[in-house]
Sequence to fold (494 residues):
Amino acid sequence: MSEQDKPNLLQKVLSALNRLVMFVVAAVLLVAIILAWPLITNNGPVKYADIDDHFKYASIGGESTSGIPYWIWKVLPVMFSDKLPGEGYPSLGFIQEPGQDLPIGFAKGTYLGLDVVTQNCATCHTGSVRTTRDSKPQIISAMPSNTVDLEGYIKFVSEVPLDPRFNAREMMPEIDAIGANLNPLEKLIYRYIAIPRTRDSLITQASKFAFLERESAYGPGRVDTFTPYKALRFNFPIDQLDDSELNGIGDFPSIWRQGPRQGMQLHWDGNNTSVDERNNSAALALVTPTNIDFDSIYRVRDWLWDLPAPAYPYEINADLAAAGKTVFQNNCASCHAFNGPYVGKVVPIEEIGTDPARLNSYTYELASNQYTLFTGVSYRGQDQRFQHFRKTNGYANHPLDGTWLRAPYLHNGSVPTLRDLLERPENRPQVFYRGDDVFDPENLGFVSDVAEEDTHQYFKFDTTLPGNSNSGHLYGTDLSPTEKDALVEYMKQL
Ligand code: HEC
Ligand code: HEC
Fold:
């Protein structure tokens, strides 16, 4: 072999290095693909076979706009426990079932390969009942979320991004400590994308909710139905909203047995006669017309169609209830029985006399804007555009099935028990507590005179604040005490 044929040392080293680099690049790529594989393939929400689980835990869409990356959502109440009234999200009244990862009303889905947490119908439409203070709560889907302080939650997620501790350097170790076990790629995504982006979007969202400072506190079981809608979906200049449109605070309603309600003018002010539009419009509190999951919502719709109100589980005095039936027929049925001539119609505000704020918050301007939503969106060949919203002049007569689980009463939840509703407004409680789930069979409603339990404070509801008036609905207030006893007994079984 001549000198020239011999590959020189430098060349040898170079080609070895070259191979090494190629190998390292290939190995890195391979590892990256293996790590990213779940992210690439794992798309779509968690599915539930059982419809009740679907209602409580499945996504209805919204991942791309309101999803909070799972581990951020998990670590927030740990890192920022100083901003919560107690331990974790349940301290805001969210129901945590044993063995479940998330509280009721929260759903796990994915966005850009990352697990995210969104909210669903059960946030506002699933409650709990205790027979006594010591008994185990019974969880009832489709009843109002009587314990849930949604405003407390909105305020919590509005405050945390402004805290200087909301940064990757401080959050990543905490996320590790609660057992995230993220792989290196996920760690990079969390550190450089998820945390800063979540911070930004929570700050933007918080600015949309600045109107909360101008409103009465909701307390558990209530929300301003349409102001968030105006802010989030239509970007109305919310700081310029007239005071007369504020405080349209509605009690969460029960949503069982929607079938017989088709065609009725419902929502508290009777502004829509279509069940599907009421469902879809409710969903828009959480999703947008482009990321709504119609399959998920229509599955809920089909179930709610016939779902009966739960039967009253406690003792009923049959004779007294029979007497009460006559009182109900004579005084209430025309407006409240399923076959009543006025049920599902609106009683003008001058006549019903209840608080006008919720009625006034729904405006012609909002109605006309709602008609632009879902333009060009169809589901199974059906145009999803809203066509049934109307501005009304009062509040609707609802069928009263499941009355026992619907307290506090009236559209703004200003009257704690049925017995109180049968008193003239000046004799109804001026101040009472909301958020308790201990049942009061005597007065029909939840216990409303207990300020705190262990360390949990119940919400002090003041009927003199804007939107909170307990006036109006004088029906039945002139009945004799015996007639009232009988009526309450009868209405337990509705
Ligand atoms: C943020 C809380 C919240 C969420 C989430 C929510 N709702 Fe509601 N829902 C309400 C409130 C409050 C009302 C009463 C609205 C009003 O008239 O002011 C209501 C009203 C309704 C009604 C009309 C009830 C009646 O008889 O008038 C239906 C039906 C309904 N919701 C279904 C749903 C469905 C289905 C979902 C999920 C897709 C959902 N809601 C999500 C709070 C919520
Ligand atoms: C003329 C029609 C009319 C009659 C008669 C009537 N109501 Fe009502 N009722 C209404 C309207 C309208 C509302 C909604 C008012 C509001 O929320 O501002 C309502 C609300 C209620 C609610 C609250 C429902 C809830 O989910 O919070 C109860 C309970 C109730 N009525 C019971 C009765 C009883 C009991 C009688 C008979 C003694 C009666 N009503 C007679 C029209 C009527």
